[in-house]
Amino acid sequence: MQRKLVKQGRGALTVTLPAKWLSERNLEAGSTVDITEGNDDLVIGVSHKRKFREISLDLRHCRRKSMFFHILQGKYVEGYDQIEIFHKKPEFMDKVLSQLIGFTISEHSKTRTVFRSIVAVPEDNFEVILRRAGHQLVQQAEDLQLIVSKEISMVDFRQKEMIFDAHLLYCLRYLHKYVSSEASYKQFLLCATFEAVADQLRYIAKNIGTKKKLAKELSDIVSEYVKLLFAKDFEGIYSLLRDRLISCSKKTYLDGLVYCLYEMLYNNIGYLVEEK
Q1: Which residue stretches of the chain are H helix?
Q2: DSSP-assigned beta bridge partners for residue 105
């Protein structure tokens, strides 16, 4: 989108903003916007003030919980504040709701359910939310040692992973709804990396057996990765993962799972590096 600059007074120039963008954020003459300067860009935004968005979906053809989840998940991430659905499976609704952080069921019957956001203005900034996801990922890796020692079951492991998945969905919703910056794409990719790593940890947990040393190694690697990530020490991340990829055994199926885990973390280092 391009806009012409219009001369205003002696030295000032003005630019018009798109009417649709203004309407979606309830902005009018006299409203205040935030302007962030960076290199050749000026980013215009508002402090989490957006128009209430709602949508109605006919999902009476859906018979599987997973299909309900994927459709609602998409609208949740898109940033809708109210999602009305017509359905034939009322028993699915509570299970779906558990994955939508910040939402509640405001209306419910055998054929109709309304999911509604109860978050007026988010209190956290995105980095705080992402750090929380990083901490949960570290805990997931630490649970490998509990799997080996049989202190928890795979059911317990999976339940914790579902909590982590719900938090990542909230991260994606937050990015789409509240963050308008060049860095948001990198942050989206980082969330995708976190999710892929969590999935890989589940596959490893199913196959790790009694390998205590490996469980401790993986726990330490993920913990160090997250620590270096938020310290923005990308050279440290590179050295950590490069050494592991070189030394990692490739003889068994479990070896392959571990190698893939390291590769997921290693292959996505480049987009995390920031200009100094």
Answers
A1: 19-24, 65-78, 93-97, 126-148, 154-178, 184-207, 212-230, 234-247, 253-267
A2: 115
- How far is the C-alpha of 276 from the C-alpha of 274, rounded, in Å? 6
The contacts of residue 175 (CB under 8 Å, 6+ apart) are: 126, 184, 187, 188, 191
Residues 6+ apart with CB under 8 A from 227: none
Predicted local confidence at residue 181, as pLDDT: 66
d(CA 106, CA 117): 9
Q: Are 42 and 17 in contact (CB under 8 A)?
A: no
- The top-level CATH class assigned to 126-272 is mainly alpha
With contact defined as beta carbons under 8 Å apart, do 207 and 253 qualify? yes
Q: Is 98 helix (H, G, I), strand (E, B) or coil?
A: coil
pLDDT digits (tens, 9 = 90+) for 134-182: 999 999 999 999 999 999 999 999 999 999 999 999 999 998 888 766 6
| pLDDT on residue 64 | 78
Q: Distance between CA 144 and CA 209 in Å, rounded?
A: 10
* Tens digit of each residue's pLDDT (9 = 90 or more) over 38-73: 556 677 766 555 678 899 999 988 877 788 888 999
Annotated domain spans of the chain? 6-45, 54-117, 126-272
Q: For tokens 């419910």, name the residue.
A: 108
List the structure tokens of 75.
């609208």
CB-CB contact of 175 with 185 (8 Å): no
pLDDT at 49: 56
Longest distance between any two alpha carbons in the chain, whole Å: 76
Cα angle value 203/273/172 (rounded, 5°):
55
pLDDT at 15 over 60: yes
Say how far apart CA 174 and CA 79 lie, in whole Å.
8
